[in-house]
Predict the structure.
Amino acid sequence: MIERLMENAAQFLLLLVLSPLVTGVIRTLKARLQTRRGPGILQPYRDLRKLFSKGIVIPETASWIFTATPWVVFFSTILAGLMIPMVAAEAPLGLFGGVLAVIYLLGLGRFFLALSGMDSGSSFGGLGSSREMTISALAEPAMMLAIFTVAIGAGSTGLTEIAGAAIGQNWRFLAPSQMFAFAALSLVLIAETGRIPVDNPDTHLELTMIHEAMILEYSGPYLALLEWAASIKQLVLMTLLINCFWPFGLQPTWFGFGAVEGICWLLAKLLLLSCAIVLLETVNAKMRLFRVPEMLAVAFTLGSLALISTFLF
Amino acid sequence: MLMMPVLDLQFGERIVTLMAALVLVLQIAMVSQRWIVLHIRIFAVQSLFLAMIAATIAWYNHAPHIYIAAVLTLVVKVILVPILFERLVTRMEIHEEIEPIVNVPLSVLIAGGLTLVGYVVAESFYRPDAPGVGHNALAVAISLFLIGFFTMINRRKALTQVLALLSLENGLFLAAISLTYGMPLIVELGILFDVLVAAMVLGILVYRIRETFESMDVSRLRRLRG
């Protein structure tokens, strides 16, 4: 019981501390690739500290949803993060729910975010909400199909079992079904974390923003919570991707020296994935909004091929 | 010295299956692609994977003549044809996007359906005791073939139709090497030079169509009748 609590606490801290770092590393790498100096990898922490010390402005038209949303988004994302294996193969909250719970906890956060976008009464908020819901409605089927493919391989939707099965079979990721699922999930990751071909996380240009449009009316600590939740969500999805398909270095438990090794592996894999994301963001221009369904149709087709090919091969 | 699993025939089969899957992913990416230069580059990468499949099969089955087919594929389809086409694109100053007849999401879904058809067809060729790379590579080959046909029908512009034809030919090549471990060398040579000549002739034809009709839209060729 105590051990489980400690595991939860450790992963909770890791999520809180690591997520701004991942955002910072991605930003810095991207700046370097564009021959800019960039703000340094610790900038997201400084941003959060600054935002937490500022005051809050709430729109006159806003209801309780506006003030509840940052908390709901933040804690549902944290809860989802506790359900995935990060360092140990066994997820701290593994008994509580499987991968479906993770996806729909993130869905709950998105639902509240979309509501609050409309609640603030600004036209940009509503615009952002409708775009976000369009994209997520298209991304979710592709994500589910890819996840089901992985779950069928493991015989369970529990992430602990999925990671365990992935550790057992060394060359499993060479199977075509896993390949298709990985490709589909990567495309969904780009759409869900608001990376460049779909959404630009660094801009407030009115025509193109999606996530930023929804949180445009937030300020101070609320904005900090939402920004933090966004980077935690990014970390959760990245970890989900790498630990479902490349479970190298996952430890049996959180305790002992194994944890240090596990964290090092996690950091190395995250860095590799961040490099891939940065490269993709730099060589691509942002897509027109009407082109996004095309990319997600590719993800959906790959997801269905993945699921079908698990039965064929 | 190489590690043991590298010499294992089953491991080789896995690598071939994996690369065949990548080829299929690239084919679907081609269906969804709107920029012609990217389209040409995806074709080059797809051909590169094909050459790697050929080399892998040659390595694991000790069939040196397939190496020649692999090298020829590399030279012709990965280097010569893409350079030829990219030059054509620069010379004709193509800037507009590819506009498929069926919209892109639906095209991609149709391509997925055609893959399924490919698998169903390949299943009937499959004999567990027969030698060969297995039904995966054959299924991918048949899918490439079907999707290539579909892309040809689905495009209006002559140049993209030629690209679809070439990816269809990639499917043929994959079927040949996966079923028989390579045809006689002289046949391979013939096919590859055929492709090169076809690409050049079609390139000139596309250029002429463009010069005469001031568009690559093949539906305008109907004007010849009246």
In short: The helical segments of chain B are 4-7, 9-32, 36-61, 64-92, 104-125, 135-154, 158-180, 185-213.
